[in-house]
Specification:
The chain has two domains: 9-142 and 192-320, no CATH class; 143-191 and 327-365, no CATH class. The chain has ten helices and 15 strands. Helix content is 31%, strand content 22%. It has a five-stranded mixed beta sheet, with helices on both faces. It has a four-stranded antiparallel beta sheet with strand order 3-2-13-8, with helices on one face. The protein has helices spanning 45-48, 97-107, 109-117, 123-138, 141-164, 188-193, 195-206, 283-296, 309-315, 354-365; strands at 39-41, 58-62, 65-72, 79-81, 86-87, 93-94, 210-216, 224-225, 230-232, 251-257, 260-265, 274-280, 300-303, 319-329, 332-342. It is α+β, with helices and mostly antiparallel strands and 368 residues long. A hairpin with a 5-residue loop joins β5 (86-87) and β6. The model has no long low-confidence stretch (mean pLDDT 91).
Length: 368
C-alpha cells in the first residue's frame, strides 16, 4: 500500500494496520473557511457512542443535580456554542479550525475501537488512542478553566503590585483595594491558545507510561465523563489523592467504551504504546476504576446504566481544580499551582462589549 501524506510531521509517520488508519493521514486544514458551524462539542459524539444503551442514549449526571440523571442522545450533550471560535485580525471570527483538527482523530475512532475489541495491537491503534486521549485531556472545560484560573491569579497579583507602587492606570484607580474580589474575566481565546502546551505536556507524560486495554467482563459498565483522562499517583489513598500528580509513580485511566478501558502505568514498558489486552472479572476492580472516573468528572458524568449511582453522588461536589499561591520578589510574580479536588470554580464573565461592561459596573455599584 502506498503511504499517504502525513500532515503531522515525523511524529505522525505511523504505518496503516489493516483497516486502522492513523489519524495523521488526514489533512486537518480545510479550505471552506466561510463555514459558521456553532455547535462545538468538547466531548466527542463518536466517543460517547461507546457508552450508549440499547436505545442509543446515555445517562447524564450533572454535577449540580447528580440525583436526577437524564437519558440523552450523545449529540445533545457535551457542547457549547462557539466553544472553539477565535477572533480574526481583520474582524469577525473563525469557527471551525479546531473542530477540523479533532475531526481527524474522531474519523478513525470507530475503526480503532473495533480493532481494540478484536484485541489487536499495532502502532496505528496506539497512535489513535493516544490522539483521542490527548484531545480529551486538552480541550475539555476542566482544562480550560484551570488555565483561566492561573491567568486570573496572575492578573490580580499584577494589579495589586501596581496599586502598591502607586502606578495604577487611571482607568483602574476606581478599583483600588478591590483586586482580591473584583470579577476578573479571562479572554477565552487565551485558554484556546494554551491547548498547544497541554498537548505537549500530555505527550511527554505518555512517553513515561506503558498502556494496556482492560476488557470488562462484569455486569457493571465503565463510566465516562466530560473529563475522562484521569492521572494520579496510585500510592496515594483516595482521600489523599491529588489529580495529575506525576511527581512519582503514575497511573492513568481512560474509558474507551462501557466495556473497555485503557490503563497506563509508569512501572513497566514499553512506553507510549498499548502492549497487551486483559480481561477483568473482578467487580471490585471495576468499581474502583469507576470511582476514579467519577472523581475526575467536572460538569457531568456519563453512564450506560444506573448501576454506579452511588459513586457519582459521592463525588459530584468536588472536581479537579487548582489552588494558586502567588509569590513575589519585588516586581517579579511567580504563581505556584497545586492541583486539588475541590468545589467547581465559578469563572467571571469575559467583558468584551460596552453593554457587558455597563452591566458589570451596575452590579458593582449595587454591591452584588
Amino acid at each position: 500500500m502506498t503511504r499517504p501524506t502525513t500532515y503531522f510531521g515525523r511524529w505522525g509517520d505511523v504505518p496503516i494496520d489493516e483497516d486502522v488508519r492513523p489519524f495523521s493521514i488526514f489533512n486537518p486544514v480545510r479550505g471552506d473557511t466561510g463555514r459558521t458551524n456553532r455547535k462545538h462539542h468538547f466531548i466527542s459524539v463518536t466517543y460517547m457512542e461507546g457508552f450508549t444503551n440499547e436505545r442509543g442514549r446515555v445517562y447524564v449526571y450533572r454535577a449540580e443535580a447528580p440525583e436526577t440523571p437524564h437519558p440523552m442522545q450523545p449529540s445533545a450533550i457535551g457542547y457549547e456554542n462557539y466553544y472553539y471560535s477565535q477572533p480574526l485580525p481583520e474582524g469577525g471570527q473563525e469557527n471551525h479550525r479546531f473542530e477540523d483538527l479533532w475531526g481527524s482523530i474522531e474519523t478513525v475512532w470507530p475503526e480503532t475501537v473495533r480493532a481494540l475489541q478484536a484485541r489487536r495491537l499495532s502502532p496505528a491503534i496506539s497512535f489513535n488512542v493516544q490522539g483521542m486521549q490527548a484531545i480529551m485531556r486538552a480541550r475539555v472545560p476542566a482544562t480550560r478553566d484551570r488555565v483561566a484560573l492561573m491567568l486570573e491569579a496572575k492578573l490580580r497579583s499584577e494589579f495589586k503590585i501596581l496599586e502598591e507602587l502607586g502606578a495604577l492606570p487611571p482607568e483602574y484607580e476606581r478599583y483600588a483595594g478591590q483586586f482580591d474580589t473584583i470579577p476578573v474575566g479571562i479572554n477565552p481565546h487565551e485558554t484556546l491558545l494554551a491547548m498547544e502546551d497541554e498537548f505537549k505536556t500530555f505527550g511527554d507524560l505518555c512517553f513515561r507510561l506503558c498502556f494496556e486495554v482492560l476488557h470488562n467482563a462484569t455486569d457493571t459498565p465503565f463510566l465516562a465523563s466530560d473529563n475522562p483522562v484521569c492521572s494520579y499517583d496510585p500510592k496515594q489513598t483516595l482521600s489523599a489523592r491529588r489529580p495529575y500528580d506525576h511527581s512519582g509513580e503514575v497511573e492513568l485511566i481512560f474509558p474507551i467504551t462501557a466495556r473497555m478501558l485503557v490503563r497506563g502505568t509508569s512501572k513497566r514498558g514499553p512506553a507510549n504504546a498499548i502492549s497487551r489486552h486483559r480481561t477483568i472479572t473482578d467487580k471490585q476492580l471495576i468499581r474502583r476504576l469507576n470511582r476514579t472516573i467519577a472523581q475526575f468528572a467536572y460538569r457531568m458524568t456519563i453512564a450506560q446504566d444506573r448501576s454506579s449511582d452511588d459513586l457519582v453522588h459521592a463525588h459530584a461536589a468536588r472536581v479537579p481544580t487548582i489552588q494558586t499561591d502567588v509569590r513575589r520578589n519585588g516586581k517579579e510574580v511567580r504563581i505556584h499551582v497545586r492541583d486539588v479536588f475541590g468545589p467547581r470554580p465559578v469563572l467571571s464573565q469575559y467583558i468584551d462589549t460596552p453593554e457587558k461592561a455597563a452591566r458589570l459596573e451596575a452590579r458593582l455599584a449595587a454591591g452584588k
